[in-house]
Amino acid sequence: MISKLGMKPLCAAGVVCAFAGIAAATPTISVFNLGNHPDGNAAPPAYGLRLDGMMGSGTTVVFSFVDVQLTVTDSTMDGGDITMRIHGLVEGGEVSAGTFADPEMYNLDFSYLANVEEFSGGWRVVGVNNVLNVGSLAPLVGDPEDVFTVTDNDDNAFIFAPDGHRLAGDNSSWVGRGWLTTELGGGNSPGTQDWLFVGSPVPAPGSAALLALGGLAAIKRRR
Length: 223
Description:
Blueprint: H1 4-25, E1 28-36, E2 49-51, E3 61-74, E4 82-96, E5 99-100, E6 104-112, E7 116-119, E8 122-125, E9 134-139, E10 148-152, E11 159-161, E12 174-181, E13 193-202, H2 205-222
Antiparallel strand pairs: 1-3, 1-13, 2-3, 2-13, 3-4, 4-5, 4-6, 6-9, 7-8, 8-11, 9-10, 10-12, 11-12, 12-13
Helix pairs in contact: 1-2
């Protein structure tokens, strides 16, 4: 008969091995919660995405981040690519006299699937005509077909790195910035169309679980 005391180390080892197997089978993934950058040129209102002209010639259009994340997937060890996806809930529309004229809620979903590389402790997009780098803004209310399409600009230059870009006295906070366009060919559109947001890393669930297991093991040793 195997005693309960004798089973404890086996169970603990089994749990650790299970987590290790999951980690080995999954590409390295980093997740960030995103927020509005405090130095947006059209502020107020604060925003993380600006798409001037999207709602008519000469309009200033911005979107404030409500619940948005950036997910980085790195499968280069398996012969794949690095990708970045910006997705979540935003509120925005045309700006008039420092406020939204008629704000709406949108689902934002944009993916950088091509030409992503490591840069300055973070990542950047290089090259031009990145037709695989595309996304959409879909309104939560109204015609579901009234979806705006946004693509990577030929000027590329999207960067997400911990360099405190445009944050006075801060050289370490994560900042995302780069040009976009509503022109499907990738060319420039009138006005300013770009990302400008800040990010904070979200701890990986696997890491938190392993830390918890380490804490339990330490408690058992003290007993």
